[in-house]
Amino acid sequence: MIAARTEHIIRELTEIKIDENALVFFIGKSRCEILRFDRLSAAQANVLKQTALVCGADLAIPKNAYRGSAHKNFSAILFANRREIGKIVLRLDEQKWMTRIADELRIVLQPEPSLNLDVGTNRYSIDRTFIMGIINLTTDSFYSGSRYVSAEIVKKAAREMEREGADFIDIGAESTRPGAMPTDEKEEIMRLKTFLPAVVKSVKIPVSVDTYKSRIAEFAIDHGASMINDISGLGFDRANRSRTMARIVAHGKAGLVIMHIKGKPRTMQVQPEYNNLMAEIHAYFTERLQCATDAGINPSRIIIDPGLGFGKQLHHNYEIILRLKEFGVFRRPIMVGHSRKSFIGAPFNLAPEQRLEGTLGSTALLIQNGASILRVHDVQEIKRVAMLVDRMLAPGDAGQRDWELTRKSFIKASRLKSKKRRKGVVK
Fold first, then answer.
1. How far apart, in whole angstroms, are the C-alpha atoms of residue 256 and residue 303?
2. pLDDT of 122-177, one tens digit each?
3. Quick one: pLDDT at residue 23?
4. 3-class DSSP state of 102
5. Catalytic site residue 383?
6. Which residues contact 282 (CB under 8 A, 6 or more apart)?
7. Which terminal residue of the chain, N or C, has fewer Cβ atoms less than 10 Å from its own Cβ?
8. Could you tell me if 262 and 295 lie in one domain?
9. How far is the C-alpha of 414 from the C-alpha of 332, rounded, in Å?
C-alpha cells in the first residue's frame, strides 16, 4: 500500500525509476474525485453517464433517469480521477448543451489557488492554521472559563492570548449558546463601549466582534474592530433585506465570518433536521456569499464557518467534521468553532470544564480535514496541536523556517505563562 499524498506518490514512483515524463500521467490517475451534479435533465444524465464510461470513469444516476422525462431534473454522482475528468471535459466541449457540466468539471481541474484573507489593512496568506481566541463579555456563556467581567482582566486575557499565538481575538457581547435570549442592543453596545477599545489598544492582532446586528457591527468597526463574526451569515438583520450588515462591513473594509445556522439560538437545538445536511449547507453558503459580494464585500475578506452546534444534532456535527474538506470548493478560509462544545462532552457526559482533551483531539482531525481558522478558548494548548499537525501535513521541508520561528516565540510565551502560574497570576 502507498499513502495517497502527492509527494509520497511521487517519491515512490521515482524510487521505482519510472520515466519522468510519466509522472504527471500517474499523479492524475491517483487523485479520485467524487462529484455531485444537480439539475440534470434525463438526456444530460444519460449522456454524462455514457461519456464517463467511455473515459474510464462512472456516473451514478437514479434508475428512473434512464427512461426520464423532459420535465424532471435529476441528480448524479461522478466517480473519476483527474485524468478521466480531463477526457470527459474534452468530449463535453463538443456538445454546447453540456457546457454547464463541462465548466463545473473544469473548475475541479484547476490548481488550487493559494488562499489570502484581507482583514482591515492586513493581508494573511492562509498557509498554516490560524487561531482565534474567544473573549465573552457575558455572564451566561456556556463555558465559565471564557467569561470576563472587568476591563483589566479582559486586557490581560487578550495580551495573554496574543503571546500564546492567537492571530485574532473574537469578542462577544451577547451569548448565542443554545436557549439564549437575545440581548438588547443598548446593553450590547454598553458592554462593547467598556471593553472593545481597551482590547484594541492592548494587542497588535486584529480584533473581531461576534454580532449579527448591523448597528452593533457599525459601532464595533468605528471603535477599532476589523472583523465581524456573524453567526447568522447576514440572515438575522432584516433591514433592507439583510443588506445593511453587508454594506457596513463592505464600507469598513472589515473581514466577515459567514456562519451557517438553522433556526435561532433560543430554539436551534430543538430537534433540527436536514434532508441532506451537506447539500443544504452548501446551498446556504452559495446564496450568502452571493449576497455579500453583491453588497460590495470583496471575497478576499470572507471566511466561512459551518456552524458546529448551531442547529445541529450530535451526528450532524460529526458528519461536518469528517466532510469539512467539501467546503473547500468555495475557495475561502474555513473557520470552525468546536472548542469545548456539547458534541465533545456528550459521549462521556462531561461538563464544558472537562472537555479540553476532546477539543484537542478534534482539533487535529479538523486541521487534517481542511480547517483554516480555529475559534477556541484554550489558545496555548490549541496552538501547540496546530503547530504539530501543520508540520506533519507540510509537504517535504516546506515551512521549516516558519516552524522554527513560530516554535521559538511559542516556547517563550509558554515559559512566561508557566512563570506567572507559579506566582499565582494566571489560574
1. 6
2. 999 999 999 999 998 877 666 666 666 678 889 999 999 999 999 999 999 887 77
3. 82
4. helix
5. no
6. 326, 327, 329
7. N
8. yes
9. 31
Whole-number CA gyration radius for the chain: 24
Query: Which entry of 341, 355, 383, 384 is annotated as an active-site residue?
Result: 341
Catalytic residue among 83, 375, 383, 384: 375
| Whole-structure pTM value | 0.84
What end-to-end distance do the CA atoms of the chain give, in Å?
48
> Are 285 and 399 part of one and the same domain?
yes
Q: Which stretches of the chain drop beneath a pLDDT of 50? A: 240-242, 398-403, 426-427
Query: Do 69 and 200 have their domain in common?
Result: no
Same domain? For 289 and 177 the reply is yes
CA distance 324 to 283: 15
Is 103 found in the same domain as 127? no
* Among 308, 331, 311, CA closest to 321: 308
Rounded Cα–Cα distance for residues 22 and 19 (Å): 5
Specify the pLDDT at position 238: 65
Q: What is the CATH number of the domain that holds 224?
A: 3.20.20.20
Instruction: Please list, in sequence order, all residues whose beta carbon lies within 8 angstroms of the beta carbon of residue 110, skipping any fewer than 6 positions away.
Output: none
